[in-house]
Amino acid sequence: MDTIMNQERKPTTFNGPLEAGIRAVSILGAAYPKTYDLQRLIALDYLLVHTGDIDGPENLHPPTPMHSAELLVRRKLIEQSLLLMMTRDLVAREVTAEGIKYGAGENAATFLSSVSSSYLLALKDRASWLVKTLGDLTDEQFKGMMRRFFDKWVEEFQHVEKSLGGGA
Question: pTM here?
Answer without folding.
Answer: 0.82
